[in-house]
Structures are given as structure tokens and as C-alpha cells.
């Protein structure tokens, strides 16, 4: 891998020779280790040393991009030439003049993310302890039960022709367990995961969740009050987060164009994007265009407060960047950081008591196909439990839950006091508490 | 060759130095170009270079791998050293290696290599798609699209002496149209791709046809009512309808799960797992098909495999490592998104073979049910076989006739059950293209089938 100073010098001289007026690049170098254990064996383990570069150039008022996982001196002329060629086909957009940013006067400090990096030996030791523990919990835990763990540390650098030079280091680790349980010919599985200090994370819940699914029956089709687990509702946020992008609203790919200040959800719902959420391994103090980041309420107590922007779409929408630019191989895109629904005030038991009779949905899958990010319509395979007389009762499976995400936000009647987070190894993540939805269509028997 | 043969030998020797019984080197250099279109204009144009090495070693039923994006000699040897340190602490047990190059017969003719075409010409193709879609109706409020071409070069060598390489070129254009009526918006899409060059647009679909098809679907859906949920007989059209087999059964026949006994079809070879009308095939040898290969990512020639023959399970899809655990040879099914992923068994072009039922008889046999004209993607839990997939264009069937359009339907069920419930199979096979996600990343796969009838299935609606 080429030395940083040499790389900058080479990019500057190559751009100058090709009459590129402004340039910006981001490099990333990471090392990682991951391992998988099934039953009592470490069956696969893998280490990686990766690097990459994303380059953005501006020539004749147009910008173009190119990127590479190869990072040595020989790649630079090819990258600059490719980015320049790409700039020639990108349309000049009204209201937007591309530029590179000289940087903000100051940037926030990261909150202490805690212990996040583990050596290969430590990862394998954590896995061995975890697997032994899972099998000790219950006699029904069966062959095929496995756990994966990974640890990564990465260094990212943003440099541009305006003199900006920013650096960021982060580390992250995760563990995920799949418990397989068998009883009387019935076989069930369930997952539990955690991110951060993997030596302190317990994945026992995978076993209990799988056991609770044994003997699952069906649910009668109808319209029910539904408690969506935090793990399920955060999957909705992952699918529908593009609707809160200023770009998508501008282009009519989201219902939120010209809706700032309007009611967008139930008054108990606040949708937060926080780049510095405590304990979030992927905390970012600057975005992919070099702007300082900050916490913002996208929906504040039910009202749409802001959308998310990078510089291009902020200018084209007549507003300012929200520090949500991510630099990718295809240029700047808009991306949230730690995107979540703020916790409510009820315990889970209180939430279920409010329902009376309904359905508690704990697992949903197939969002990539069953949820339309533009219309908001969804029809998702689900499993969970019936709620009878204010209590969680028998397990149910093989049904779909259908509705529209944008109207569902207005039907959230209560939220629990704990946020469940996705595990992402430091990338964008979503989180949500459990939520009581007034009524959703359930298709079962 | 992407790497000097002597250096390959050095790397393999280093990986084997602590007692591994097998080692493999996978080198990749790929060029990916992408263009995106929105509002009739080119929104993004990007070039991405993938370059790196994946080194693996086995010791019995244990596999260790290491990857690096640095192909310098020092980095390669250090990466092989990482593998050696993780796999064992002993001395070399593997015999000396003598590499013998195996030349691959390329069955995928490429007429117009995408990397030789100026980006302006590709942009013009994408704009033609956008203009055609927008022109279909004033209700088409937005059209987005992407054009992607990939030129992938791989080299595989292993301690058994294999040394081989391949070049894999593919193209895909994807269109998405939004139809708007009042505050309601619905989408339609069309995404043909092939393992071929820009002749795709002459031989398969023109940009205009791709755009118009997305617009047509969006317009059908904007006028459609919602399907009532319930259990119905369904007729699933050919083409991407084959996702039903891909999700309900295909993943559960991959060694990735079968080897550990965590597939509902583990231990079922020779048993009836599907209706006798069902014969299902995974075939990586089809010239120019989206999921086709010459060799897999372990260097093994790809194969045509009859997975299910008249309802009887005949074969699994097996990679080298999981094959060890199963006591079975590789079926040329190892695939990885790139060097950065560890390969595992995956599908290529998977389809239900044509049957003898007439299409009109299939529709006429359903009194009240659903005709699924276009399917979206889906997913499966291979352990339990529970699967789901989305219907992107559907019509109600009344009295054996296809009637009004309905939207918002999804199909859910259990793989072992639905395979038994496929009780009519039509004569006209067609395929659709998708990107399949699994532990070794996102890879191109074809799904396919003729028109089929499923006796009954849970339909999620409103």
C-alpha cells in the first residue's frame, strides 16, 4: 500500500496534468478477523487486510467518480482517467455547482465507544465459551447450533484539493448465535446478536426464543392490534430510511416532499439520527464531504422536522446539508448513522397488557421483496405469539403482516422503554423499541 | 495469468507450512462500471476496480482463509502466513506441489466487450430506456434506471496441482417506473441481464422494451385493488416465477446447510420430496445465461445437475469444503461475490423443467384463486423450510378465467409442502435474473420455470 503523502502528491499531480480542477479522495484501511463455530468445532475462520480508495474529481463544472480496492501508485492514473471520463456523462444539475469543501472550524468529539477490538485468539475464546454455554442451557439445544464472531479495526482518511485532511479510526466487534432446538420431531431456530464488547455479550436469548417457538400453530386471518418487536420495527426503518433522504423526496420517490412541519407519525414517535450515539461503534464526527455531524430529530413528536441531505441535494432543494454525506465509489450519497425511534416509557409487559387480544410479532423476513420503498406497501412473512387477555400466549407462524409503512407510523399507540439495535460492524444501523400498532392485517389460516 | 506461477507456488507452500492438508489461492481483478439515471438524466457514473487475493487452507474438517487487497509479493506471503498460523502449529504434511495449467473452454461468446465501449454510448442506452418508459403514460411520474457491466478475471490454484483461470463478462440494465394517481404511487420494474456484452440489447431486450415493461407494470398496479388474504390455489407464470423453487427448495439443497444437517432436505437423497410432476435442475453450463460459469470459484468446471427428478431428490449443490463433511465430491457449485468472501455452495441457473400440462388448462382448473404474472424476490429459512416471496403483478382468477389486477400480495409457505403441492406444470420454460444473497455475498443467478399451479398456498394481502 502506498504511503499517504505520496498518494496525495501523485493524485494532485495526475489531476493537474489532466486539467482536473478539484479533487477529493477517501482511503480506508482495515484489518479484521472472523470465525464460525458449529457445535463444538471452529469450522471456518478468516482474516482480512483490506484497503480501498474512492476518488471524486471536478472538471468543467461536472463531477465524476472512480474507486479501487487496489491502492498502489500504478492505479492512480487509471482512477483519475476513469473519474474524468465518468464526469463527462453526468448531467449538470440546476442549482448545484460541484465543489470540494475546505472543512468546518471544529468537529465534535466521539463519545467513548467502549472496548470494541478483539484479537483472533480472543474471538475464538469468546466463541468457545459461548457455544459451551448455549449447549448447557437446555437439553433440547441440538446439533447445528452455531455462533459467528468478528472484530474489525479501520482507519479512514478524507483529503481534498481545498486543503482538507481528516482522519477517523474505529473498531467494532459482534457475535451472533443461531440456536437450533429439537423436540418430538419439531425443529426450530432463533438468533441473538450483540455488538461491542463481545466478551460481555450473552446470546442465551437465542435458545429461549427457539424453545418458545416449539409447537407453533397458526393464526386466523384478520385485523389485529399488533406488537412489533424492536427487532422487527428496526427492519422497517432499514427498508424505509431512503424515504427520509432529501434526494428521494425531491425526485418524488418518497411521500415527504414539501411536508416539513406536517404530521408524519403518532405524537409519541420521534425518529432520531444520531452520529454520536453513546456506545455506537460506528460514530462519525465528520461526513463524507468533510462536514461536522450532529444529532437531529427527523420526526419530532410526530411532526416531520427535517430530511437528510448531502451538499448536492441540499442545494437543489434550497436548504443546507445535514452532514449525512457518505462518500462511495459512485460519489456522495445520503446515509443516516444511528437511525432510530426513541424509546417510550412502558415496560414490555405493560405494552402487552394494553393490547388485550392481538398478535406479538417477533420475526419478519423478506423485506427486500415484500416491502415497496416508494409506495410504503408491505406484506411480510412473520412469526410470533398470540396475545390473549393481555398476556403473551401460544407461538404462531407462517402468516403475513400487511399494511403501509407511512400510515403505520401514525398508528403507533405505545412504545416500550428499550431500543433494540441492529448489528452492523460500524456501518449505518437502525434501532427501535417494541411498538403497539393499532391495527394491521394478518393473513394466516 | 493474474499471478506469476512461481509466486503462486511460494504462497501455497507458505499456507501449507504448518500442517494443512490442502491449500488454495484465488486471485481476482475485476472492472465494474455503473451508470444510474433519474429524471431522464445521468445521476451517477462510476468505475470500480476489484483486486485482491483469497487464500484458504483445510485441515480435516476445518477451513481457514485470509484475504488481502494487496497483491505484492510481501503481502501475499504475509496473507499465506496468516492462514498457516491459524490452521495449525505442526510441520508440513502435504506433498510437494506440481502445478498443471488447465485451460477452460469458454462457452459464452461476447460480441461487444463492455469495457471497450465509451461511457457516453452506455449513457445513451440508459437514456433511451428512460425516455421510452416516460412516454408510456402521463401517470408515469418518475423513471430510474441503472446499467451495470462487469469484467471479472479470476485465477485459481491449489495444492492438488490445479492452475486455471477464467474471464467472466456480464451486463444488466434495470428500470424502475413510478406511476402516480392522486397521493397513491405504485412501481414496476424490469431488469434483464446476461453473461454477454452489449449485444444484450439486440439479442434479449432493447432499452425501449425494458423501459416500457417497467411502466406497464406500474400502470397495472396503480389501477389494482388489494387482494384479500387467505389460502388459495395459485398459478405462477414462467420467468422470475422460478423464484418459488429458488427460495422454497434451492437454498435448502446447498451443502452450506445440508453438510451440518440444518436443512429440511438433509438426508433425503433418493426420497420423494416433491410432486412427481416436478423435475428441477441447476445448470451453470447454459451459454450466456446470467448465472452461468465456465468454472466455479474453486476452479471446478460448472455442471448441469438434475436436483429433483420426477419428485425424487437426486443431488445436492456441493462445494469442496462442505463436500468433505458430506463425503461427496464438489459439484462445481462454489461461488463467492469477490475474493473478499469465503466461497460456499450456491446456485447458478436453477429452474423447474417443462411439463405436459397446457397453460389454458392450468388457468381453467382454478375456480377462485390468484394468477401471479410477475414475482419479486423472496427469502427462506433453510432449517424449517419457511419461505416467502413477493408478487409484483397479479390478477384474481374467477371461474377459471384471469380477471382484475390485484396488488400487495405475498406468498408464504413451507418448502417441503409447496413442492408436493405443485400439481400442474406447463410447457414453456422462461427465466428471470436476480442477485442472490448468502454467506459468500451477492452473486448473479437465474431462476426459471414454466407456468405452474400450486394446489394451495397462503396469500398475504389486506
- Count of DSSP strands of chain B: 24
Based on helices, strands and strand pairing, what is the structural class of chain A?
alpha+beta
Major β-sheet annotation of chain A: 6 strands, antiparallel
Series of H and E elements of chain A: HEEEHHEEEHEHHEEEHEEEHEHEEHEEEE
> What overall form of chain A do the CA principal axes indicate?
globular
Mean pLDDT of chain A: 94
Integer-rounded radius of gyration of chain B: 24 Å
Strand content of chain A: 35-45%
Number of helices of chain B: 10
Provide a compact summary of the structure:
Chain A contains ten helices and 20 strands. Chain A is an alpha+beta fold and 445 residues long. In chain A, the strands form four sheets. In chain A, strands 3-2-1-4-5-6 form a six-stranded antiparallel sheet. A six-stranded mixed sheet of chain A has the order 10-9-8-13-19-18, covered by helices on one side.
What does this structure look like?
Chain A has 445 residues and is of the alpha+beta class. Chain A has helices at 4-17, 75-87, 120-137, 205-213, 230-240, 246-250, 311-316, 348-355, 367-370, 405-408, and strands at 22-38, 41-59, 62-68, 146-160, 165-183, 186-195, 222-228, 271-273, 296-300, 303-304, 325-328, 331-334, 338-341, 358-365, 377-388, 391-404, 412-415, 420-421, 429-432, 435-443. In chain A, the strands form four sheets. Chain A has a six-stranded antiparallel β-sheet. In chain A, a hairpin with a 4-residue loop joins strand 4 (146-160) and strand 5. Chain A is globular and about 75 Å long. Chain B has three domains: 5-32 and 46-102, no CATH class; 114-155 and 167-219, 2-Layer Sandwich (PmbA/TldD fold); 230-460, no CATH class. In chain B, helix 1 runs parallel beside helix 2 and helix 6 (243-250) packs across helix 10 (415-421). The termini of chain B are far apart. At the A-B interface, strand 2, strand 3, helix 2, strand 6 and helix 9 of A face strand 1, strand 2, strand 3, helix 2 and helix 3 of B.
Amino acid at each position: 500500500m502506498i504511503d499517504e503523502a505520496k498518494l496525495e502528491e501523485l493524485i494532485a499531480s495526475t489531476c493537474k496534468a489532466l486539467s482536473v480542477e478539484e479533487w477529493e479522495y477517501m482511503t480506508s484501511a482495515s484489518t479484521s478477523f472472523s470465525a464460525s463455530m458449529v457445535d463444538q468445532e471452529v469450522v471456518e475462520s478468516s482474516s482480512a487486510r483490506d484497503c480501498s480508495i474512492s476518488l471524486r474529481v471536478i472538471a468543467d463544472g461536472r463531477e465524476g467518480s472512480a474507486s479501487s480496492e487496489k491502492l498502489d501508485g500504478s492505479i492512480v492514473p487509471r482512477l483519475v482517467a476513469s473519474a474524468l471520463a465518468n464526469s463527462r456523462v453526468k448531467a449538470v444539475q440546476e442549482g448545484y455547482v460541484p465543489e470540494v469543501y475546505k472543512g468546518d472550524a471544529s468537529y465534535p468529539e466521539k463519545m467513548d465507544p467502549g472496548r470494541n477490538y478483539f484479537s483472533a485468539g480472543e474471538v475464538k475464546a469468546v466463541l468457545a465459551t459461548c457455544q459451551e454455554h448455549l449447549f448447557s442451557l437446555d437439553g433440547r439445544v441440538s446439533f447445528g447450533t452455531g455462533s459467528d464472531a468478528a472484530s474489525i479495526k479501520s482507519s479512514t482518511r478524507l483529503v481534498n484539493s481545498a486543503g482538507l485532511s481528516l482522519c477517523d479510526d474505529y473498531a467494532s466487534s459482534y457475535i451472533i448465535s443461531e440456536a437450533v432446538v429439537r423436540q418430538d420431531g419439531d425443529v426450530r431456530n432463533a438468533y441473538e446478536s450483540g455488538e461491542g464488547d463481545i466478551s460481555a455479550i450473552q446470546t442465551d436469548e437465542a435458545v429461549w426464543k427457539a424453545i418458545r417457538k416449539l409447537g407453533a400453530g397458526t393464526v386466523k386471518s384478520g385485523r389485529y392490534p399488533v406488537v412489533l418487536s424492536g427487532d422487527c420495527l428496526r427492519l422497517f426503518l432499514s427498508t424505509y430510511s431512503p424515504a427520509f433522504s432529501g434526494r428521494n423526496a425531491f425526485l418524488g420517490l418518497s411521500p415527504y416532499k414539501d411536508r416539513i412541519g406536517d404530521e408524519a407519525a403518532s405524537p409519541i414517535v420521534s425518529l432520531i439520527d444520531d452520529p454520536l450515539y453513546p456506545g455506537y461503534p460506528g460514530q462519525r464526527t465528520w461526513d463524507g464531504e468533510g462536514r461536522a455531524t450532529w444529532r437531529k430529530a427527523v420526526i419530532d413528536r410526530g411532526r416531520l422536522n427535517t430530511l437528510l441531505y448531502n451538499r448536492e441535494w441540499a442545494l437543489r432543494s434550497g436548504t443546507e446539508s445535514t452532514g449525512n454525506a457518505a462518500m462511495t465509489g459512485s460519489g456522495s450519497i445520503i446515509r443516516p448513522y444511528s437511525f432510530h425511534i426513541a424509546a417510550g416509557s412502558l415496560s414490555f409487559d405493560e405494552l402487552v397488557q394494553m393490547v388485550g387480544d392481538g398478535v406479538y410479532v417477533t420475526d419478519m423476513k423478506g423485506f427486500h421483496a415484500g416491502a415497496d420503498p416508494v409506495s410504503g406497501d408491505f406484506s411480510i412473512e412473520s412469526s410470533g405469539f398470540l396475545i390473549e387477555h393481555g398476556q403473551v400466549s401460544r407461538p404462531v407462524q407462517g402468516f403475513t403482516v400487511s399494511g403501509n409503512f407511512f400510515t403505520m407510523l401514525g398508528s403507533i399507540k405505545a412504545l416500550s422503554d428499550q431500543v433494540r439495535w441492529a448489528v452492523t460492524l460500524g456501518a449505518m444501523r437502525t434501532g427501535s423499541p417494541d411498538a403497539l400498532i393499532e391495527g394491521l392485517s394478518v393473513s394466516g389460516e | 495469468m493474474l499471478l506469476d506461477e512461481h509466486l503462486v507456488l511460494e504462497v501455497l507452500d507458505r499456507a501449507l507450512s504448518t500442517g494443512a492438508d490442502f491449500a488454495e489461492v484465488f486471485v481476482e481483478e475485476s472492472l465494474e462500471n455503473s451508470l444510474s439515471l433519474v429524471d431522464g438524466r445521468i445521476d451517477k457514473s462510476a468505475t470500480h476496480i476489484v483486486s485482491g487475493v483469497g487464500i484458504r487452507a483445510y485441515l480435516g474438517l476445518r477451513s481457514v482463509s485470509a484475504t488481502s487487497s494487496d497483491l505484492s509479493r510481501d503481502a501475499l506471503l504475509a496473507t499465506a502466513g496468516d492462514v498457516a498460523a491459524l490452521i495449525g502449529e505442526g510441520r508440513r504434511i502435504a506433498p510437494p506441489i506440481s502445478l498443471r495449467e488447465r485451460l477452460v473452454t469458454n462457452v459464452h461468446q461476447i460480441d461487444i466487450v463492455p469495457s471497450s465501449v465509451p461511457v457516453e454510448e452506455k449513457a445513451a442506452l440508459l437514456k433511451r430506456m428512460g425516455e421510452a418508459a416516460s412516454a408510456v403514460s402521463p401517470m408515469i411520474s418518475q423513471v430510474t434506471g441503472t446499467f451495470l457491466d462487469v469484467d471479472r478475471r479470476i485465477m485459481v490454484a491449489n495444492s492438488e496441482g490445479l492452475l486455471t483461470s477464467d474471464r467472466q463478462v456480464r451486463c444488466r440494465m434495470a428500470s424502475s417506473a413510478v406511476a402516480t394517481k392522486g397521493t397513491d404511487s405504485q412501481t414496476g420494474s424490469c431488469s434483464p441481464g446476461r453473461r454477454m456484452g452489449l449485444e444484450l440489447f439486440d439479442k434479449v431486450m432493447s432499452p425501449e422494451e425494458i423501459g416500457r415493461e417497467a411502466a406497464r407494470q406500474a400502470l397495472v398496479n396503480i389501477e389494482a385493488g388489494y387482494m384479500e388474504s387467505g389460502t388459495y390455489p395459485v398459478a405462477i407464470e414462467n420467468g422470475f416465477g422460478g423464484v418459488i423453487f429458488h427460495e422454497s427448495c434451492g437454498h435448502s439443497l446447498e451443502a452450506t446447510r445440508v453438510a451440518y444437517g440444518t436443512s429440511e432436505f438433509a438426508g433425503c437423497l433418493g426420497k420423494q420430496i416433491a410432486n412427481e410432476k416436478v423435475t428441477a435442475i441447476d445448470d451453470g453450463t447454459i451459454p450466456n445465461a446470467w448465472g452461468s460459469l465456465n468454472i466455479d470459484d474453486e476452479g471446478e468446471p460448472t455442471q448441469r445437475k438434475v436436483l429433483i427428478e420426477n419428485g425424487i431428490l437426486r443431488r445436492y449443490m456441493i462445494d469442496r469444503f462442505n463436500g468433505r463433511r458430506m463425503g461427496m465430491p464438489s459439484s462445481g457449485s462454489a461461488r463467492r461475490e469477490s475474493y473478499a468472501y469465503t466461497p460456499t455452495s450456491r446456485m447458478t441457473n436453477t429452474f423447474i423443467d417443462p411439463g405436459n400440462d397446457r397453460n389454458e388448462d392450468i388457468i381453467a382448473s382454478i375456480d377462485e384463486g390468484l394468477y401471479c404474472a410477475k414475482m419479486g424476490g423472496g427469502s427462506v429459512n433453510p432449517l424449517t423450510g419457511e419461505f416467502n416471496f413477493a408478487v409484483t403483478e397479479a390478477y384474481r382468477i374467477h371461474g377459471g378465467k384471469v380477471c382484475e389486477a390485484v396488488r400487495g400480495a405475498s406468498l408464504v409457505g413451507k418448502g417441503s409442502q409447496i413442492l408436493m403441492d405443485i400439481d400442474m406444470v406447463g410447457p414453456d420454460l422462461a427465466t428471470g435474473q436476480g442477485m442472490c444473497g448468502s454467506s459468500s455475498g451477492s452473486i448473479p443467478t437465474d431462476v426459471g420455470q414454466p407456468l405452474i399451479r400450486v394446489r394451495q398456498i397462503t396469500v398475504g394481502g389486506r
